[in-house]
Amino acid sequence: MEYSCNTLFFLLLLLSSNLLTLFISTTLYSSSCSLSPHLQTTPAAAEPDLPSEFLAFTSPQKLPLGFNRNFDSDEILPSVGSSCTLFESDLHRYMTYQVNGSCPDDELLSQKLLLKGCEPLPRRRCRPASPSRAAEPLPLPSCLWSTPSDASVVWTAYTCKNYTCLVNRGHSQKAFDDCKDCFDLAGRESRRWTGHSTSSSLDFTIDEVLATKPPGTMRIGLDIGGGVATFAVRMRERNVTILTTSMNLNGPFNNFIAARGVVPLYISISQRLPFFDNTLDIIHSMHVLSNWIPAQLLHFMVFDIYRVLRPGGLFWLDHFFCVGNELENVYAPLIESVGFQKLRWEVGRKLDRGEELNEMYLSALLEKPLNNSW
């Protein structure tokens, strides 16, 4: 009997202590266990207001034949730049159209999105604007060095409304435009990379570069930011196939490139190069890769160039420009860190904007090692 009373006493004591603890915690310390008033009333962050066509394109799509081992899934997610969702207003304009109808005439908007990092752009289910009276292109080989027909371009996005204006703007226009004299194929373009324009050690010729490799081993490659693709045309004349990346910066560069019978790639410098590892024989870039690109982004880009070049492939860095101390302190170490072997490395003054700016040019011919290139 005494044992039962003691047991009952301890049970009552335990229950009382728990009730007391619960009372104290719910009265004295309730503020420490609850959200502060402003957090309680603040709504959750709003979801992006994305266009319905964008959502339709980027939503998971079931594979018609079910699970696929290559995808390790039964669905596919179309590729699109994640930065697109950061520019809701522009994205709405770009993805608002009548399905199966005509696309808006919005080349400037699409390029604006690309340059902001919305790359690749989402696909659309509409037909783009085309010239109202398109003409057949000139045949090869005459198209390589001929100005194409104005009828091959939709001109609404550009200041010039015909090729005559573009050809003459290098002489008549004082304002800056990217590659302002490029469309004049009878001017400076006719002398590029031939050795006839200057005796400067910075100006490598195509034949000098090709001579560094066994005959016939330079077959395919890429020109980054290649203007109107004169480099690709010169190489085509030597049985080398070059693709040219170019943006339409106040001129129909991509149309012009295609009309010349070589292949344009409409991508910015931010996009990972769309080639598999160890595949290209040569990559060239003139002026585009320079100190206007953030150094870390440039470092990523040069490594991407190294990635897609085959062992023994060439990277021709043509007239890279920067301020004098930047070359020594930033860009030379950056390039050297990637792992190329130097075949040529020429440095000279850039004087077109005045000697006082202390600008420098670097022209380099770099080779990915044939062996142990990883």
Report on the architecture of this protein.
- It is a single chain.
- The longest helix is centred in the first third of the chain and has 26 residues, at 2-27.
- The chain folds into two domains: 52-127, no CATH class; 142-367, 3-Layer(aba) Sandwich (Rossmann fold).
- The strands form three sheets. Strands 7-6-5-8-9-11-10 form a seven-stranded mixed β-sheet. A two-stranded antiparallel ribbon has the order 1-2. It has a two-stranded parallel sheet with strand order 3-4.
- The protein contains eleven helices and eleven strands.
- It is of the alpha/beta class and 374 residues long.
- 30% of the residues lie in helices and 17% in strands.
- The chain has helices spanning 2-27, 37-41, 52-58, 88-94, 107-116, 163-172, 206-210, 230-236, 253-259, 295-308, 324-336; strands at 61-62, 75-76, 101-102, 126-127, 220-224, 241-245, 263-265, 280-286, 309-323, 341-350, 359-367.
- Strand 8 (280-286), helix 10 (295-308) and strand 9 (309-323) form a beta-alpha-beta unit.
Q: Total number of β-strand segments?
A: 11
Distance between the termini: 86 Å
Give the name of the CATH superfamily of the largest domain: Vaccinia Virus protein VP39
| CATH architectural designation of the largest domain | 3-Layer(aba) Sandwich
Q: What is the count of DSSP helices, taking H or I runs of 4+ residues?
A: 11
